[in-house]
């Protein structure tokens, strides 16, 4: 069992992602919104204080099984959250909708918005903010140090890449057009962390593009996230006109990975980038055999 934390004598004030100063008092009943936030809380051994999670909180797998679900992070139910009588809500900054957040704000429940930045430093800061909100700074330092070590090992692995491959991240097909990731997206960031380059340029976020744009991008690899029943497979993707003429189709170079693991930018991100790098560059396998990401096994519960 994780070691219990002593009760906080006085509240603390956190400047959150909205630029607001949030006074946090008791933390015995916490609602966690965002897969990375829940993953961090569990990694810190604080799951006993979590009374509810959102639908993206799929790791560890038991989180959704053992905690009430307050809905998808961008479509939260105010009633579902308030019905759990939380003393604190910790949510990734893209959570919503605004109407729900207005209701939660009116209820005077401390709400800490955690920055959603797709950088190595952003992961560390995310861990430290969640830990600080829970009055668990020592545990947060433990996990942040483990993650920092993993990111350093990833940098060494990335330095061994001789020729970066061009990767396109395909989110879905929308009315027959490929919805792909541009700059300033989690997909773009994980591609770069893995030592590759995003074949799509010219816009930010996720947008549908023409068949001609995909052909012109000349991706060497197609990357998708696992989506259960709606999951894209290589045969479907490479049969599509936009991908059939790409170098990726010629080589049947296709990678599918768990969505939260790949794009969550939580404690396991360095491990996800390593796994992606090994899929893109099989010859790196020998250089990665001795690296076991610390974030997957470190004990930061005390």
Helix percentage: 25-40%
> What's the shape?
globular
Residue ranges: pLDDT <50 for 5 or more in a row? Answer: 1-9
Which radius of gyration do the C-alpha atoms yield?
20 Å
Any descriptors?
302 residues, alpha/beta, four-stranded parallel sheet, disordered N terminus, six-stranded mixed sheet
What is this entry, summarized?
This protein is an alpha/beta fold.
How would you explain this protein's 3D organization?
- This protein is α/β, with parallel strands linked by helices.
- The chain is built from 14 helices and twelve strands.
- A hairpin with a 2-residue loop joins strand 7 (166-174) and strand 8.
- The chain starts with 11 loop residues before the first strand and ends in a 14-residue tail after the last helix.
SSE layout and pairing:
Layout: E1 12-15, E2 21-24, E3 30-33, H1 35-43, E4 50-53, H2 62-66, H3 78-82, E5 88-92, H4 98-106, E6 111-114, H5 120-133, H6 137-158, E7 166-174, E8 177-181, H7 186-193, E9 197-198, E10 206-209, H8 211-217, E11 221-226, H9 234-239, H10 241-244, H11 247-251, E12 254-258, H12 259-263, H13 269-280, H14 285-288
Parallel strand pairs: 3-4, 3-5, 5-6, 7-9, 7-11, 11-12
Antiparallel strand pairs: 1-2, 7-8, 8-10
